[in-house]
Amino acid sequence: MAPKCRPRYEVSKQPSSPDTVQDYKDARWATLVKTTYIDPDSTTRTWESAERLTRPAGSLIDGVGIVAILQHPSDPSAPPSILLQKQFRPPIDAVTIEVPAGLIDAGETAEQCALRELKEETGYVGTVVGEGFGVSPVMFNDPGFCNTNLHMVHVTVDLSKPENQNPKPELEDNEFIECFSVPLTDLYAACRRFEKEGFAIDARVGTFAEGIEVAKRWKLV
Amino acid sequence: MAPKCRPRYEVSKQPSSPDTVQDYKDARWATLVKTTYIDPDSTTRTWESAERLTRPAGSLIDGVGIVAILQHPSDPSAPPSILLQKQFRPPIDAVTIEVPAGLIDAGETAEQCALRELKEETGYVGTVVGEGFGVSPVMFNDPGFCNTNLHMVHVTVDLSKPENQNPKPELEDNEFIECFSVPLTDLYAACRRFEKEGFAIDARVGTFAEGIEVAKRWKLV
Description:
Two copies of one chain form a homodimer.
Chain A: E1 20-21, E2 30-38, E3 44-52, E4 63-71, E5 81-89, E6 94-98, E7 101-103, H1 110-122, E8 127-128, E9 139-140, E10 149-158, E11 177-183, H2 187-196, E12 200-202, H3 203-217
Parallel strand pairs in A: 4-10, 6-12
Antiparallel strand pairs in A: 2-3, 4-5, 4-7, 5-6, 5-11, 8-10, 9-10
Domain Nudix hydrolase (chains A, B): 59-205
Keywords (chains A, B): Hydrolase
Family (chains A, B): Belongs to the Nudix hydrolase family.
């Protein structure tokens, strides 16, 4: 059942150098900003934070994360599974367990970005979920530190469709991504297992998994 | 049932200035780094990212987020509710819906940090959940952009205890936090409503809410 997207990713054993301080003038992708604000006690304060330089003019978001649920209409008893990725992330020098994701292009909607990135990164053709659950509120990844944000876009992938029989990713030269899937109901235990195996857990995956686990523990259905 | 922690937070209407570019040498809280790495095709590449300057030496994490569930042992029919906060976040110039959270002190465990921050920010005295569910895997907030990370710490707050009858936060001079609670089963709908009202949604809250909602939709209990 695990989708085959790429040969297994091999992390380079060459040491990375995460402590080279960046000269601000050279930076093309990220910047620091200082915000001045007045608090409720009328005290003027400042706050340092980081921003991407890639958000298109006019866009309210940097990108999307994609919750893609693999479905087997011919096998209704098969548990719904979430499509995940292993990808090396230089900022943390580790291979991360994350959802398919990407930065938004100018003029693109969140839905368009999600279906494009899903196809590019995994080869799968998906359908955005309806009933007002397809595109999440704008979510801010770490709003005390940076302004980066995204919509989570919920997508179903019908594995019986011809276009999903032999998914072929179209990766950039600098993208090395391995796709796999986990039954939703096992996602929390899988995150625990992946951490023990040395993978890093993306918070969007980890807190999503905790939500499922809490719903099970408190019988919220 | 809503806990009373602070008078309602008033956002200053003074415009903030988020576009003042920070001179690197002045920065005390955040920095940019450039990482060099060798990809699986043996190509040397670089990656720009942001880091906090506050992580204590020897600590693997920047801080904790706290999933605090309010419980009424005397009223077992009351739905479990999650403790949330409204807090102005200068990096996004908005009041955010978030869980109690804080940076870790040197030598502190995640559990200690969570109980300390919970008491400081909300006044409540909590107990860390057992059964291996108390402290989450390390989660990375946006690992393509920055190295910031946290443990989510799961805590219960027994509202029948004497110390939780009249919670008194102990906030810093620059902290203005309003606490409230939402039934877990309503959290996703509440996030939708808060966004419509102009609040920003922290991704740790939003994806947690989506996990609960997905568990309900797929009947994963």
